[in-house]
Each structure stands twice: as structure tokens, then as C-alpha cells.
Amino acid sequence: MLSVHVHYQTHHFSPLTLVSKKRETETETEMERNEEEIGRENGLALATENDSSSNSNDHSICGFESLHHLLCASLSPQVFQEVKRLLWGLNCGRAVEPISLPDPAKALSSKHDFDLQAFCFHADKELLREPRIVRVGLIQNSIALPTTAPFLDQKRAIFQKVRPIIDAAGAAGVNVLCLQEAWIMPYGFCTLEKRWCELAEPVDGESTQFLQDLARKYNMVIVSPILERDLKHGETLWNTAVIIGSHGNIIGKHRKNHIPLIGESTYYTEGNTGHPVFETAYGKIAVNICYGKHHPLNWLAFGLNGAELVFNPSATIRQFSEQMWPVEARNAAIANSYFVGSINRVGNEVFPNPFTSGDGKPQHTDFGHFYGSSHFSAPDGSCTPSLSRYRDGLIISDMDLNLCRQLKDKWGFLMTSRYELYAELLGLVC
Ligand SMILES: NC(=O)NCCC(=O)O
């Protein structure tokens, strides 16, 4: 059993070992022709772009909360071990290990029905440095009230819903916690309606105050991505992550660097904070907000500024990015020798007025399914399984930050880079 708090469905497919036995007797063409059939025999209908069978209305993956759960229940233990090695990699020669959490954290996850999983990334033992183990948490959540409810009620209901998840992180001894992009509101930007601007807050606004108390209570650094209104500079809007220190102090903020050309760009523009790395009690952290994950140089800049852990708080749907999700952050972790925590909201958010997404499709009232699937990636290329595709959740991982330098020494990506060549080229094209 790989997760600390498991919610397996009752489906049990025949082990794929049966499939491989059958395949030994087939030619390659037969295998191709029969792939779908064999998949169906095993209850694993293969997904195609237009095939909704892999994403039934409950937004499960063939009845499972995550790919990890599906594979664990469907493969023989031996085959699953090997598939895990290939899909999630090895950390210090071993599969990324689940760890157990204190009972109060587990009790909160049962009572409030959120997915709770915990893992551990190791580093090699060093002779001159002590291990630098940090416990990091990521929270994914759906909204709490219909998008038609009064705004203040919507926001406060989200506070109420997220509170026990933060309490679970506190009970589990999490040191650094990150919430999802614009966590205090629905992702109303897809509607283009300006009324969502009302939910913007100053950096020291209501949500920051709410989290400051919790940061103090649990001695925890909290990263809080909000829609910001800069009251001191023309009341402009930004998509901002506020970094709250473990004493409840505001360490700083980062404003989203890359704004997608969908909805959001009609609300706010590119951030003006560069690529800050925040020195916290628990390590050097940075935030690459959502769409910035598609920009390798954005990831690079946080690395060059010394980040050891970069969060990617997101709000993204299946149609946009699900196939990129397991790849981009993991690649950034490898290329820049740091850890990445990827967070995505969950659920469907239905809005009162129909809108289009500029894709020629009919008007609709919901943007699409936010597929959750929050997870961690490590600089050695290993990663954790993902949280549920449709439920709120908290994923925790211990990570020895010494692994960052160890990977730099092993692979030397920074040393062998040729940034001067790229700088020259970029100088020419800019
Ligand atoms: N929130 C946001 O930047 N969404 C863009 C979609 C994506 O990057 O997957």
C-alpha cells in the first residue's frame, strides 16, 4: 500500500501480467491491432483525445483517484514495482517511500474527506554537512460554495474548508506549505467578467491575516497565491504569491511572470518582481505561478537565483495541460537541481452566465475539470505519486535539501551550461 491514507475503489482488474503472457504469442501487428481489445478485456479502455471512457463524469481514471492507484490495483506487485521505477523513478536507488503520519492528521483527513498522502526523498549522507530535512506540504481544493453566492461568503467558506487541511499539515509537522493559485476564489478569469476583481486583496489583506495566525500556530512558512490589489500603487491587480514566515511575518511576494492569453490577460499584466528567492527558516524557496511552468527560462532564473524548492501553484484543466503536467515540473527539477511542488485546484466551477473559451466551441458555463493531481518532483528525476484527480487533498513530503547540491556535483548542469551563447542569441532576438 503506497499512500498513507488510501481510498481505493472496489474495481479490481485482472493483472496485466496476463496481457503480457498473451502478447508473447502474437506478432507485432496483431499486438497493435489488439491493443484496445486487450485493454478492454482488462477493464483498461485506452484513452484517446475524444474518448471519454477514461474520464467518466466522476472525473476518476477508470474508477480510480489517480494513475498510481489504478496501476497499483491493476498490476501484479512485481510488475507494479517495475512500472513504478520507470514512471516515478528512483531516489537514492529506491522507490520514493511513503511515510506514516500522526493519527490526528489522518483523523482530519477522514473527518473532512480529503486525500492525504506522504512520502520521503532521501539524499546521500555527507561527511561535512548535516542532512537538511524539510517537511513540505501542498494543498489542493475545490471551491466551497456556488459561484453565485455572495463573494464574502464564498471566500470565507473556502477558508473554512481549507482550515482543517492546514490543521492536518500542522499536526503532521509540515514546515513549508503552499496553497493553489488564487486559492481564495473560483477561477472566474475564464468568464472575462470584471466582477471577480472584487475578490482581490492587498498583500496584507484578509487571507494573509487568516494564514498568519496559522503560520504562527504551527511554526510554518505558508505560500499564499492570491489575486492582489496593490492599494498603494494605483489599485492595480496582480496574480501574486505572498510568502508568510513561520512567525506570521510577511517575508515578501512574487507576482506571476507569464500571463496566459486566455481570460487572465484581461485582468492583470506580467509581474514586476523578477525571480525572487526567499530565504526562509527552512530553505530557499521560490514560486513559479501556473503558466510560468511552460517557460523553461522562468524555471532557470529561479534556479540561478539559488532556489532549492520551487512551488508551482496552478489552476489548469484537462483540455489544456494534463499531458504536460507530469512532465514540465519534473523536467524543471532535473534541469535546475531543485525540488518542485506542483499544485492544481480540483473540481468543476459552474458560472452563472455562459461564456466561450475562444475555441469555436459552443458557449458553456463551466471552464472544464480542474484535475488536481498535485505532486512533488526531485532534482534526481524521481517524483511522488499524485493526489486525487477530483478530491481535496494534502500531499506531504520530507526532502533532504542536500540532494540539490549533490545533483549539481553529479551532473554539473550549471557548470556545463553555455548561457553566454544563449544570452548572445537572445540579445539578437530581443
Ligand atoms: N492559471 C493559468 O495560468 N492557467 C493556464 C493554463 C496552464 O498553464 O495550464
Write up what this structure looks like:
This protein is α/β, with parallel strands linked by helices. The chain folds into two domains: 72 residues, no CATH class; 322 residues, 4-Layer Sandwich (Nitrilase/N-carbamoyl-D-aminoacid amidohydrolase), CATH 3.60.110.10. It has twelve helices and 19 strands. An eight-stranded mixed sheet has the order 3-4-19-5-6-7-8-9, sandwiched between helices. A five-stranded mixed sheet has the order 10-11-12-13-18. Strands 1-2 form a two-stranded antiparallel sheet. Strand 11, helix 8 and strand 12 form a beta-alpha-beta unit. Helix 5 packs antiparallel against helix 6 and helix 6 runs parallel beside helix 7. It is globular and about 60 Å long. The chain starts with 16 loop residues before the first helix and ends with a helix. The N terminus is likely disordered. N-(aminocarbonyl)-beta-alanine binds next to helix 9. The site of N-(aminocarbonyl)-beta-alanine has 10 residues, from helix 9. Its EC number is 3.5.1.6. It is an enzyme of class 3 (hydrolase).
Question: Mind sketching the topology for me?
Answer:
Blueprint: H1 17-24, H2 28-41, H3 67-74, H4 77-88, E1 90-91, E2 94-95, E3 97-98, H5 103-111, E4 115-121, E5 133-140, H6 151-171, E6 176-178, H7 206-218, E7 221-230, E8 236-244, E9 250-255, E10 278-280, E11 283-287, H8 296-304, E12 309-314, H9 318-321, H10 325-336, E13 339-344, E14 346-347, E15 350-355, E16 364-366, E17 370-371, E18 375-377, E19 393-400, H11 402-411, H12 419-429
Parallel strand pairs: 4-19, 5-6, 6-7, 11-12, 12-13
Antiparallel strand pairs: 1-2, 3-4, 5-19, 7-8, 8-9, 10-11, 13-18, 14-17, 15-16
